[in-house]
Design brief:
The structure is a homodimer of 417-residue chains. The first copy, chain A, has 2 domains: 11-49 and 303-410, Aspartate Aminotransferase, domain 1 (Alpha-Beta Complex), CATH 3.90.1150.10; 75-301, 3-Layer(aba) Sandwich (Aspartate Aminotransferase, domain 2), CATH 3.40.640.10. Chain A has 417 residues and is α/β, with parallel strands linked by helices. Chain A contains 12 helices and 15 strands. A 7-stranded mixed β-sheet of chain A has the order 4-10-9-8-7-5-6, with helices on both faces. A 4-stranded antiparallel β-sheet of chain A has the order 11-12-15-14. In chain A, strands 1-3 form a two-stranded antiparallel sheet. Helix content of chain A is 36%, strand content 14%. In chain A, helix 8 links the parallel strand 7 (167-173) and strand 8 (198-202). The interface between A and B is large, with 91 and 91 residues.
């Protein structure tokens, strides 16, 4: 943390921090709408300025002019592995351990099924209680299909205890989607291995914001999302990681043509490709994947350790500003008090959290709401300024003072909260 | 078929047909590169002129300015069902029977698994022998996962005979990918029902080109592809159809959050949404889906029966031109001789088919190759002119006369054939 005065922070303190911020130039690489303070990059990253041009080229030149030849001439066919390599560098994977394909949920299904098959005789899937819902839903769908297995849930702090020799695979979110709590990648992976279980991590809320060393931590399997901190655009394809030492052993059941050893031989029977490519399934959505590719290039220009350093500072300052400016207004910190134990987000509780979020959005401050009462603020260091935090917390104070929960139109839930 | 002279066809005959073609104005709605005759719209449809503007709007205005609010403000969240409704009109489904999601392969997995669960006690999945490989691969992946079932293959003409009371589901391609043979949607569905089996159709090579009445034929389940005759762009999302009468009964195992009855309640357990929405899984790729949406609008402007009439005429004339202009050059028709028994494509066999296709591509005529020896020509009536067929067949004759298989550089297989 920087040296900051002990008196309440002023605008000039924050402006100073922005002035000294080595990541400040990155903000111009995003098209951020005027008058908006965006605290939801952990849900949908903003538009990198390089994306419109790339997409225009992919659409008009590659699709429009090359037509079917684009698969070779512009190496569309190689995109899942090429973008996978880039994401691999962001998460500490080795070359050939990551591929971009399908959605996070579909990739979870593949890796869960592969894990059960690789651990015959074990019948338990261990998940974090109150983890990201779709993770558990995918386990439920798989277990209902295959039969003979059971789901075990344990609170995050009891996961290590809940491991035993019947656990085939443990599935944990690296950063908890609601509280922002950062889980112990190395320790929990080692605990799973101690019991002969595989460790499957959901990196949706950490990849691109929290440095990590998947290979060094001997993580077995992981999935993650392209549209949050990776800024790949709405519904960008997801990624999937399999440690090289497991790649020959693991097969997954969504055995589509693109994961075949020879996809264009049109053979009668499925033969899995060697390496990570066997986790491909159908034809990848090239437009969405090209946007993610360009967004990853931008992230790779930044130093991940500098990103994390700023993220910690943003988290600490946001917390301090809330204490200094919103005391007595009913807010409570949700999740760890130490920024180092959080991902790149901070969550606040308020009994009328939903109406407060709606009132903030009216003011141009965009966090999101997670039930029952959480105001979730993403702190993306690539484009968020320290001064933005001051302005956001001022809006938060004003919004709370106006008691927006008395306005009936802010009670009605919209489709996407 | 039009009245055509009995003498060999001339350019003026073809130009006359183009002049009278009611679909001719649609050609201008595509960005087709100059000097190219595109016979591969059954593999990747060309770029509709309205797509670049739509995508630019989705990227810069919707993603760029609305950010996370795009899910509500631009109804991204509704796209899978809205585009599904459009495709439903193209395939004779009723409202609420189609959703756009994932890839064709992933959708096959969902529906195959749902079908097995809906037919307990039956242990056979019947597929067309030599059908589209990924269809069979997906069956293999599923059966390997669930155990206790078997794959039965039968030639298309023996499928009805191969049905028995152990068949849970029969999976057939509506149009055979290589030969173009059109299967009997109504008859085979009825045959499956006679044995209590479900009929699952792969419409990848027919949707958007062959009119069909899924609901009237009482088809149970279907999947199809967004990037072939629907022109949705490279790797466009796929679609999935479930007859309304089966929707409450069927559940699928890729139980992701978007198929949940209340996706934003973040409940601890999965509850399938009512209706077709339960077949959604993860977050949809909005950029790719928006392109497909715009492409479907274009197709919906055309009269599907007029489309089929022109497709039949294109097929008959192409065949006749090959007979008239390429006799004795080693070509042989693959698939049915009657255009009415084909989809919107025609396939020719040649011992050196691969080199011939490469030589055609050099000349700006783009069909594709399917092993071992098939030159596959898509005949998309929305943008193909009769005069294009004359020019294409002239190139074919010239290419054959040059014996391109003597050129070593045309022997080497490229990544995507």
């Amino acid at each position: 943390m920087s040296e900051l005065p002990h008196r309440p922070l002023r605008h000039s303190d924050l402006a100073d921090l922005d002035h000294r911020d080595p990541l400040a130039p990155f903000r111009r690489r995003f098209q951020l709408p005027k008058g908006v303070i965006y605290l939801d990059g952990n849900s949908l990253g903003p538009l990198p300025t390089a994306v419109p041009e790339r997409l225009s080229r992919v659409i008009e030149e590659e699709w429009g002019r090359s037509l079917i030849r684009g698969w070779n001439d512009h190496d569309w066919i190689g995109l899942p592995l090429r973008v996978g390599e880039k994401i691999g560098r962001l998460i500490g994977a080795e070359s050939g351990e990551v591929v971009v394909t399908d959605s996070t949920s579909v990739n979870l299904f593949k890796l869960l099924a592969a894990a059960l098959k690789a651990r015959p005789g074990r019948s338990t899937v261990l998940v974090e209680e109150d983890g990201f819902p779709t993770d558990t839903y995918m386990v439920q769908g798989l277990l209902d299909l295959v039969g003979g297995h059971r789901l075990r849930r344990a609170p995050a702090e009891k996961l290590a205890e809940a491991l035993d020799d019947d656990v085939a695979v443990m599935l944990v979110g690296h950063v908890h989607y609601r509280s922002g709590a950062l889980r112990d990648l190395h320790g929990l992976t080692a605990a799973a291995h101690h019991h002969g279980a595989l460790a499957l991590w959901d990196l949706a809320h950490s990849a691109g914001a929290v440095p990590m060393e998947l290979a060094a931590c001997r993580v077995d399997l992981a999935v993650g999302c392209g549209y949050k901190f990776l800024n790949g655009g709405p519904g960008a394809p997801a990624f999937l990681y399999v440690a090289r030492r497991l790649q020959d052993e693991l097969t997954q059941p969504l055995s589509g043509w693109l994961g075949h050893a020879d996809p264009f031989a049109f053979e009668a029977d499925y033969r899995p490709a060697p390496g990570i490519a066997r986790h491909l399934c159908g034809t990848p959505p090239i437009l969405s994947m090209a946007a993610l590719d360009t967004a990853c290039d931008l992230l790779l220009e930044a130093d991940l350790e500098a990103l994390r350093a700023k993220s910690l500072e943003l988290g600490g300052i946001f917390q301090r500003l809330v204490e200094e400016r919103c005391a007595g207004l009913g807010l409570e910190l949700a999740g760890p008090a130490d920024p180092r134990q959080r991902g790149s987000q901070i969550s606040l509780r308020h009994p009328h959290g939903y109406a407060v979020v709606r009132a903030l959005v009216e003011r141009g401050v965009i966090p999101d709401f997670r039930g029952p009462d959480v105001i979730r603020c993403g702190l993306a260091p690539l484009y968020l300024r320290y001064a933005d935090l001051g302005a956001a917390v001022d809006h938060l104070r004003q919004a709370l003072e106006e008691e927006p929960w008395r306005r009936p139109e802010l009670q009605t839930r919209q489709g996407v909260p």
